Amino acid sequence: MVSSVTEAEDIVQESFLRYHRATGPERSAGQRVDSPKAYLCTVATRLSIDHLRSARVNRETYVGPWLPEPLLADRGPGLAEQAATRDSVSLAFLVLLEALSPVERAVFLLHDVFEFGYGEIASIVQRTEANCRQLASRACRHLAERRPRFEASKQRRSQLTERFFAACDRGDLDALVELLAADVVMYGDGGGRGEAVKQPIHGPVRVARFLLGLTRQAQRRGLSLQPAEVNGQPGAIVSDPDGQLIGVLCLDIADGQVQTVRSMVNPDKLAHLR
Q1: Is the pLDDT of residue 82 over 60?
Q2: φ and ψ of 230, to 5 deg
Q3: What digits encode the pLDDT tens for the residues 18-49?
Q4: Which residues, 6+ apart, have CB-to-CB distance to 147 below 8 Å?
Q5: C-alpha torsion sign, points 152, 153, 154, 158
Q6: Per the confidence metrics, is the pTM higher than 0.90?
Q7: CB 173, CB 132: distance < 8 Å
Q8: What is the DSSP string of 183-211?
Q9: How is domain 5-61+91-146 classified at the CATH fold level?
Q10: What b/e string do you get for 124-159 counting C-beta neighbours within 10 Å, with b at 16 or more?
């Protein structure tokens, strides 16, 4: 919902605090919680909606492209076990969800990802069941038109990722261009605090040249790159000579080529990975 590990943790904590107050000795007279799951999901969803509404205002002044916080597979057990779940936490899909209104996003996730019924969802988001069906239908149409595609074969993803980083390491422009889709795009999220491109880079030659420039700079600074699964997709983490994580790179791969490259160096979005 919120595309931020820190904010998600705060919302979960606040939800349990409210549950504790609603079920503890200091609860209001006549207040009762029949279903802990329903209560917690309702509170967490409403807090998430409130957060998204305020976050949209803050992002209007964000420096450069805004990307969700990355999540590494080994830090999020179970997230990448199923293909459907893996794709639903991909950076590409989380970016796509940003185009939905907060309530549309909540209805879509509760129904399509967490398999809640429309009756339950209506109670959570305080809308009618008919309205929730309309919101879900509208969200599904929007997402279906733009939903990202990913390489189905894990072996092909791994092979192409290995070739991609090998070409960068060798400084092989031709080999790298061959791996990039004709409409490849690179995004960088520095938030004004890390060194990142402030505008997306389009096209295989421009993206390849920029990546090779980054690689040469990283090699001069003694930075190391370690392959990693980022939000269920292939990528890498970048560390300084002291082993401190300073960046995360994520690749969207489909049809045997890299479709999108996302680089995150905003330290605020990497704190939870350190």
Answers
A1: no
A2: -110, 115
A3: 999 998 877 766 677 889 999 999 999 999 99
A4: 93, 96
A5: negative
A6: no
A7: no
A8: EEEEEEE-TTTS---SS-EESHHHHHHHH
A9: Butyryl-CoA Dehydrogenase, subunit A; domain 3 (1.20.140)
A10: bbebeeebbbebbeebeebbeeeebebbeeeeebee
